[in-house]
Here is the input.
Amino acid sequence: MKRILTSLTLLLSTITMMAQGWPSEYEGVMLQGFYWDSYDATKWTNLQSQADELSQSFSLVWIPQSGNCGGTSMGYDDLYWFPGHYNSSFGTEQQLRNLIATFKQKGIGTIADVVVNHRKSSSGWFGFPSETYNGVTYKMTAADVCGNDDGGKAKAEADRLGVALGNYDTGEDWDGMRDLDHTSENVQTTVKAYLHMLLEDLGYAGFRYDMVKGYSGTYTGMYNADAQPEFSVGEYWDGAVNNVTSWLRYTKIGGGRQVIESAAFDFPFRYTVRDAINGKDWRKLKNASVASQEAYRRYAVTFVENHDTEYRSASYPQDPIYRDTLAANAWLLANPGTPCIFLKHWQAYKREISAMIAVRRAVGLHNECTITPHTQQQQLFAATAVGKKGSMMVAVGNNAKTFSCDGFTKVLEGYHYAYLMDNNMETAWADVASGSYPKGLNVTLSAVTQQSNAKIVYTLDGTTPTATSETVESGTQITIPSGNVTLTAGILVGSSVSGIIKREYKVSDFSPYTIRVYVNTDQVGWTKCNYHSFGGDGSRAGTSWPGVSVTNKVTINGRDWYCNEYSINSKNDYIQFVFSTASGSPQTVDTEKLTKDAYFEVLAEKSGSKHKLKYSTTAIESTKADGSTGNQHVYSLDGRYVGSDTSTLPHGIYIVKTIDSNLQSKSRKIIIR
Here is the structure.
């Protein structure tokens, strides 16, 4: 009996530890695996194909709400909650299961986007679908809707239908879909079953709760205490630290379990970074955040951009960081809290961000580590972060490149950022993380050591370097040859080699990449659009006429574009198209050889029996029907494309390129706004 009681005590203790919102001293980094309208980039099959690469940098990947929403959707108008209705805008239920299983096999936990503040009805105001799962039928009614939903409009409709609503909302009202009454026993039962299904059936590792301002934090606490996720983060969208930490405290529930049951996105952290960058004053990074609070940093999921803050279009500018994307991520990855990298940033700067994550891991930074300001100036902010294995310094701002500090060695640097490691770590360092890279990969080797006469020895065949191996001075750049190369490097002092590191590089003459092809049919009134693809070097199969029906649409500047994604698989590869309606007629003229993103507008004007196309490299360029263009592309100084109209941009310095009909740069200039 004593042994049974002891085992039971240990089991209950383990469950309690797992359910405390977010793991203590967690060292992982999370990826937000989508952005707004990322229907192609975030296809379950597309994400699954990247599992090997993602696993080298990320422990968690947050994906969109995965249930069927009754049409093309990012998932925030949730309709179905249970299996049988899991063919979403990102793929089929089986493809979702394959993705989650593959991620798990590679050591990645998948985070579900849980939308339970509100729900879409399938008919009328209160016609929610009936779903049967594991022999139990779940059905919501008007009684499960908040009594003051939609500012009283739901009540008026309920009175007209002669039905009763539930209790008043325990959080903020949202004038959209039906706000669910979480005091309802039926809602609670359904949500609990849904969460258990996500964890135990689909295999998710944890939850990201959407719009938690819409209902009391006590219910997030209740649901997590029941489901026992290891990871849970709530979107409490608020820039005030006290408001976010207050929500965290509300997730504590009774019954002897007075522990915080969920982490929260650190919006205050995000706003400090935005204000420092957009305001050109790096001292603002010292402003308070959840991650800066010792009692709460464990529960801070930090980020610098997401799908609700990113720049979408001139019509939906949102609230983005307009410059210094790399500096923003460098600061993010050197701080306590669990960093969440935005997919667009990862796509644009894989090499730089993976290198930053490698430094974070080497130092052993975690969500409860400490960071102390060192230099606080308008043009430079530097701080020291202490992890389980050592310490590092991060410098961001206009003067970051020239920053140095006694006892630290610079191991990474880029536009407006630098990382330095404590010499007490006594390790060799390579400034490029393991991964796949194109031919001509250069890597800088550094000796992080107290020994002033130290050099670097290295091999490229995976063998352990010795005193007789290739030797270079610390700070030397070497070129990695093509092929699968294992770089092993160590510190050489006298005849002794120590501090050995290893990198696995796959260096090829060409790195496959994807392009997106957009088609607008407003002028011809097509309600369907087929893409017939052909050409290339044979590495990518084409389609038989009349091609593949493309249903994914994105809205840009108020116009709908059919969008599909294709792979360019070699330096000789390209893709060509004919666009048509579902029957194959009418159709367009052939496109030229494409190797990068392109936008086509189908014109009513015909060439023979075929519609002409207007071609451009962005959706907002003004182009001619013959495809010629003399338009400008505007880039921020960190290389991000920010549009073609400089008049709509915030004050700053920009690079303006003029592009010719072959997509080549004709001229370049710097402008200051």
Notes: The chain has three domains: 29-117+196-366, 372-508, 513-629. The domain at 513-629 is CATH 2.60.40 (Immunoglobulin-like). The chain has a mean pLDDT of 89. Residues 185-202 form the longest helix (18 residues).
